[in-house]
Amino acid sequence: MEKEMRSLMIGPEGKQLDELGTPDFAIGFYELNVSDFINQEIPAHWHGDLEIFMLDEGTVRLFIRNQEYMLQAGEAYFVNSNVLHGLCVVGENPGRYRSIVFDASIIAGQTGSVFDLEFVRPFTEQGGPLWLSSQTELDVAMEVRSAFEQAYAAYHTKAEGYEFDIRAALSKIFLKVRASTESHPLKVPSQQEMRLKQMLAWLVSHYQEGIGVEKIAEVAGISVRECQRYFSTYVKMSPIGYLTHLRLTAATELLVSTDLPITEIALACGYKSPSYFTKQFKERVGLSPRDYRQKRMG
């Protein structure tokens, strides 16, 4: 089956860089399907923004740091800023979801305000990494879902002053999540996670090069065995598997956004052999690079 690659737009520091709204209202509303990503998974990534996620259909496995959780349709999660997380589909059903990713300033307001200093900043710096609707009281989960729907409705209608409605809904979600996670462990990352982020960030900037596991491990100053264990624990794929995902992500972008020959795209994405690139692309995406380009370009 063909897979349309969804871009995570990971920048030079390894962080997700999806453009969020406008500079004065930095928020993004997404309606996607995990099944549409290569290998039906969104690999481990992180971003400085807060995120509220609602699964509308299917079952997905959520990876938060070195923990795993199963989400069913109708369940939600809230992930704190800069927390490593990823998703994959479970079973045959699609993982259709909606999410709101927003800069903390949407609810914190001006730097130094009471909202910032007393509530938002302490949470983003030291609060719990994750809130799950399935692990909280039913009435709280229902209130969060209701506020989520209110924010989405305001975004779609865009009536005058809709920004206030979105801010109010997100503030309500934030306060419910904050109260529910006060007893949770702090989000301070482990040394392993910090080293893994080093490696992920480096791979994002160097995937075009010839890379082996030894070089990836060297970036974090650890052994090859440790490197493989870190990726298995946090990313749920091998170091080379993650590298392949990055390369194919870049290739799908180039196939659609440029008219470069496929051989040049293969070389630009780190493949020395265009035939091996074509083989991997077809295995992971479901179409040859040429067929993928023709289908996407119409």
Automatic annotation (TrEMBL):
Keywords: DNA-binding, Transcription, Transcription regulation. GO terms for molecular function: DNA-binding transcription factor activity; sequence-specific DNA binding. It comes from the Bacteria. It holds the Pfam family AraC_binding. Residues 197-295 form the HTH araC/xylS-type domain. The keyword Mitochondrion does not apply. InterPro entries: AraC-bd, Homeodomain-like_sf, HTH-like, HTH_AraC, HTH_AraC-typ_CS, RmlC-like_jellyroll, Tscrpt_reg_AraC-type_HTH. This is Helix-turn-helix domain-containing protein. It comes from Fundicoccus ignavus.
